[in-house]
Design goal:
The protein is mainly alpha-helical. It has 2 domains: 5-64, no CATH class; 72-122. The chain is built from 5 helices and no strands. α1 (16-30) runs parallel beside α3 (56-64). The protein starts with 15 loop residues before the first helix and ends with a helix.
């Protein structure tokens, strides 16, 4: 009876030993080349590179299988830049939504004022002024 590796796919919280054993099981059924492809796909989809399973033992085993899962300095730099850009776009969305909300509230205030008194001339460009009592020297 053949093992069904789809029933034992490791998760992001699985230990390195589970990932190694799963690869061994895959090799028994699919052969080394196909097992490597399936394993890499699951590793990428399940976030294995960022998990605690990404140990030197696992990297060594997979290296012997012809699969390089080690992180290089260039990859780490790319990850950092990607995280910064993701954060920047997240902040940008907040700023845009905040700005549009303020503009929307101002327009809503103008519309309410127009509907309450449609005959009144609305001077949008007039700035609030400081009362004269506060500007006169004593």
């Amino acid at each position: 009876m053949k093992l069904d590796p789809s029933l034992s796919v490791p998760t992001a919280s699985s230990k390195a030993e589970n990932w190694i054993q799963w690869h061994v099981d895959l090799k028994k059924i699919f052969g080394k080349k196909k097992a490597n492809s399936i394993w890499l796909y699951a590793w990428a989809k399940r976030g294995g590179i960022n998990s605690s399973a990404n140990t030197s033992a696992l990297r060594g085993y997979m290296d012997k299988q012809g699969v390089d899962i080690s992180t290089t300095s260039l990859n780490e730099i790319a990850d950092v830049v990607g995280n910064v850009l993701d954060f920047g776009f997240g902040v940008g969305k907040v700023v845009i939504i905040g700005t549009l909300s303020v503009v929307g509230l101002i327009l809503l205030g103008i519309l309410v004022k127009l509907f309450r008194n449609p005959n009144q001339k609305l001077n949008i460009t007039a700035l609030p002024t400081v009362p004269q009592q506060l500007t006169k020297p004593k």
